[in-house]
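Why this split exists: single-chain examples teach little about how molecules sit against one another. For that reason, every record in the complexes split bundles all components of an assembly together and asks for one structure covering all of them. Below is a record exactly as it appears in the raw files.
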Amino acid sequence: MAETAKAAPARGRSTRGAKAAGPKSAAPPPNGSVPVEDAETLVGYYRQMLLIRRFEERAARAYTEAKIGGYCHLNLGEEATVVGLMAALRPTDYLFTNYREHGYAIAKGIGADRVMAELYGRSTGVSKGWGGSMHLFDVETRLLGGYGIVGGQLPLATGAALAVSYKGGDEVVMCQMGDGTAAIGAFHESLNIAGLWDLPIVFVVINNGLGMGTTVENSSAEPELYKRGAAYRMESARVDGADVVAVRDAARTAVERARAESRPYLLEALSPRLKGHSVVDPARYRTKEEKEALKAADPLAKMALDLEEAGILSHDDRDRLDAEVTAEIDEAAAFADESPAPDISTLFDYTYATPVPGDLRRFPADPVFRS
Amino acid sequence: MATVTYRQALRDTLRAEMLRDDNVLLMGEEIGLFEGSYKITEGLLKEFGPKRVRDTPIAEEGFVGAAIGAAMLGLRPVVEIMTINFSLLALDQIVNHAAKIYGMFGGQTSVPMVIRTPGGGGQQLGATHSQNVELFYSFIPGLKVVAPSTPAEASAMLKAAIRDDDPVLFLENLALYNTKGEIPDAIEDVEPAEIGRAGVTREGTDITLIGYSRMARVAGEVAEKLAAEGVSAEVVDLRSLRPLDRQTIVDSVRKTGCAVVAEDDWLTYGIGAEIAATIQEGAFDWLDAPVRRVAMAEVPLPYAKSLESAALPSAESLLTAVRDTLRATGRPVLENVS
Ligand SMILES: Cc1ncc(C[n+]2csc(CCOP(=O)(O)OP(=O)(O)O)c2C)c(N)n1
């Protein structure tokens, strides 16, 4: 169950016409009560979590085999949060994330093959090989980008919510970030603007307790990050990120509030990552005991046990599911492997959307003027 | 044709574009109730209301970024940053996001937005309020940077910038706001400019003067003076700093055989350096003299009037450099430039 902080009642503002632009609905806000889950839904969530887990393990392997370059930040341990959050969104809702976004892309509905192909830098990847691990983007499923600059996605997501409100749509924008991001100026500026302009946006802080090696206590004067909502008269809540249903329900409350009232919301999910900051980080800043405790509390393993105890998913079912998911990831990796690298003749294609007159850009060794 | 100020041309163009396209909205500090620090948005809040003329908090990174996000979803925001000095607070959003989103995501979404911002010294505003840092933006692929010098150009380029599918930095100069020029009676009749094309604003055969924004205007004045001495100067107004129209520059220098570049920013690594390099690469065999550059003195701009004036490039400093250059060519024209 989520801890919530109620915002102060909305101010009376007569001069601000921006308010009129937002969609209004008479529907009462959802009460956030936990519905009894049917087995099929739970197994579906479990399967998605497992798919993300196997994807990430495969990505880590491919990275050590040098098939993936650059940085590679994984969602290991955060799968319940990822799946719960995405389950609360409609397909038409928009998502902005940071660079730790493989799981989000998959749970938002992008095929694991196109995500893997992007990690491999192939032309079949979601961003045609231009983005890599940190910059997945897909118009179709409305993943409007993973961003590598800490906090860079916050102003952008706020602006997307402005566009929704401007056009009178009923979509919601979800903006994911890490706990370390709550310290950056863009966090304050964006929440302030979203609160001021009544924008339909849910800011989600994935509090895994660390920004690289810095603990949230060492980076935030108020480490209970959801409480910061109060500074912007924004409703906020904190939820246990290990519980996929709790996350989904807390996110639903946030998303439906944003949709019905065109008001921003701040949701914090407590969701420790199992491994280092990125594939190459051995996480020496964690003690052996900590690492063992984390492993023992792995939300995916715990969910498997819960489902088994509840008689929903037997050990055999689980193995079958695992084999299925692993085969899907094998196929994704094979697809990525077999896909062509982007053709070098396309190097100048994506700098400008509007054609440039007399474009004299060239490859490094070419002269600017030929005659 | 009507004679209007640069300021009026901007205001009328903004208004016309807002009437033409509902997706155009204005955002910025003090642009609504206050009607703009330099009154470019005068009357627009009254006419279009706060949905389309949005006063923002003092949060350059936040509202510039919000405009980028809004543009990703199809709006066409025109942001005013009070002065280019404050754009540095939004540098991350402009350089890391506006410029990169189209490429980084394989061309799936563009960022059709405009950032209007004035710069320029000469107002005794001191070091932090008198910079021309357009170089930072001109360096970045993915951005377009334009700097019109006349009311007609300002109108044509603003139309083009608003209709362009890429992020455009639209540079104004405080010294230009009250300057006048002719534009068509009906603002609707202004043809959008082609971003990325320089203009040969005066034809000549003896020397090429290259400038942009205020210095393009100053170059025009200098060319006028030179004409009185029988020297035919060609003036190239860059208009667009990125994309840069290298061909027009090179064609002109191939014709005249020498050039002086005038810029309202610092010399080292500056825009003039890029132009000089372009000439070297494209017109070396045609050059009769080294390319000269006239730029701002390389100091944080001082407050005291005497010092500030000495630091800024002017018609006199440009004229001096032109005479030096003409002399260096050793052509007969030398006799005319005492
Ligand atoms: C502006 C900026 N500063 C520093 C970095 C380097 N950096 C990358 S990730 C990271 C930690 C961010 O932590 P958090 O927001 O908690 O997200 P998490 O990695 O835990 O998902 C840092 C400092 C960066 N990418 N951008």
